[in-house]
TrEMBL record:
It comes from the Bacteria. Residues 3-221 form the ABC transporter domain. InterPro entries: AAA+_ATPase, ABC_transporter-like_ATP-bd, ABC_transporter-like_CS, MacB-like_ATP-bd, P-loop_NTPase. This is ABC transporter ATP-binding protein. PROSITE patterns: ABC_TRANSPORTER_1 (PS00211), ABC_TRANSPORTER_2 (PS50893). The lineage of its organism: Bacteria, Bacillati, Bacillota, Clostridia, Eubacteriales. Gene3D superfamilies: P-loop containing nucleotide triphosphate hydrolases. Belongs to the ABC transporter superfamily. It comes from Proteinivorax hydrogeniformans.
C-alpha cells in the first residue's frame, strides 16, 4: 500500500469566510493503481490532490505514506517528499513560455537531490518517450495545446516520481488530443508501473482507470 488518508478534514479561512472543503475523508491508494477522482465543481477534488501531493496539509486527520505518518512532518521534509515522490500535471500546463521545451523539462531536475546520472540525457530520453524530441528547442509559447500537455507530462515524470498527480489533464484538449494524452497516462501506469491519480470530469478518462473515487461536498460518496 502506498497512501492512506484517515478522517482528513480541510478547512480554509476563519469565521464567516470558513470553508469546510474536506470532511472526515478516508482513502487508500495502492501502489500501481490508476485512480480517477470525480465530482462537481467545488466538491474538494483539487484540495484532495494538493493534500495527497504534499502541497498542502490536512487541518485534521492522518496521512500516511508507506506506513509513515506524515501529516506533521517539517516543511523541509514535506518539500523533499513533494519533489521526490510526486510528479504533478496541473491545469493550464504551467509551462514557462519564454523557455524552450528542453529547459522546461529540465526545471525539476535543477532542484532535484536525486542521483540521476546525466540530467541532459534524462531530459532527452523523456522527450523521446513522449514523442516530442523534434520540439526540443521550440519555445513553450509556440506549442499547440496537445504538445504543451506532453511537455507538462514530460516535466512531471523526468524526476522519476513514484506517483503522478494530474488535475484535469484532458480538460482543455480536443477529443483526439485528449485520447493521446490518456494513452500516455495508461502506458505510464501499465508499462512503467507508476501510481496515477487523475482529477477529471471526463468519463472517457475515468473509464480507463482501475477505480473511480466520487467526491461530493468534501466527502467520498
Ligand atoms: N485557498 C483556498 N481558500 C479558501 N477556500 C478555498 C481555497 N481553495 C479551495 N477553496 C474552497 O474549497 C472548496 C473546494 O474547492 P476545490 O478547488 O478543492 O474543489 P474542486 O472540486 O477541485 O473544484 P473544481 O472542479 O471547480 O476545480 C470550494 O468551496 C472552494 O471555494
Amino acid at each position: 500500500m502506498s497512501i492512506r488518508l484517515t478522517k482528513v478534514d480541510k478547512i480554509y479561512g476563519q469565521g464567516d469566510a470558513k470553508v469546510h472543503a474536506l470532511k472526515e475523508l478516508s482513502l487508500t491508494i495502492t501502489t500501481g493503481e490508476m485512480v480517477a477522482i470525480m465530482g462537481p465543481s467545488g466538491s474538494g477534488k483539487s484540495t484532495l490532490l494538493n493534500i495527497l501531493g504534499c502541497i498542502d496539509r490536512p487541518t485534521k486527520g492522518e496521512y500516511s505514506y508507506k506506513e509513515n505518518e506524515i501529516s506533521h512532518i517539517k516543511a523541509k521534509e514535506m518539500a523533499r517528499l513533494r519533489n521526490e515522490v510526486f510528479g504533478f500535471v496541473i491545469q493550464d500546463f504551467a509551462l514557462v513560455d519564454r523557455y524552450t521545451v528542453f529547459k522546461n523539462i529540465m526545471i525539476p531536475l535543477s532542484y532535484s537531490q536525486k542521483a540521476i546520472k546525466s540530467k541532459k540525457e534524462k531530459v532527452e530520453s523523456v522527450l523521446k518517450q513522449l514523442n516530442i524530441s523534434e520540439k526540443r528547442d521550440v519555445l513553450a509559447a509556440n506549442l499547440s495545446g496537445g504538445q504543451r500537455q506532453r511537455v507538462a507530462i514530460a516535466r512531471a515524470i523526468v524526476n522519476e516520481p513514484e506517483i503522478i498527480l494530474a488535475d484535469e489533464p484532458t480538460g482543455s484538449l480536443d477529443s483526439a488530443t485528449g485520447q493521446d494524452v490518456l494513452d500516455i497516462f495508461t502506458k505510464l501506469n501499465s508499462v512503467e508501473k507508476k501510481t496515477i491519480i487523475i482529477v477529471t470530469h471526463d468519463k472517457e478518462v475515468a473509464s480507463c482507470c482501475h477505480r473511480i473515487v466520487n467526491i461530493q461536498d468534501g466527502m467520498i460518496v
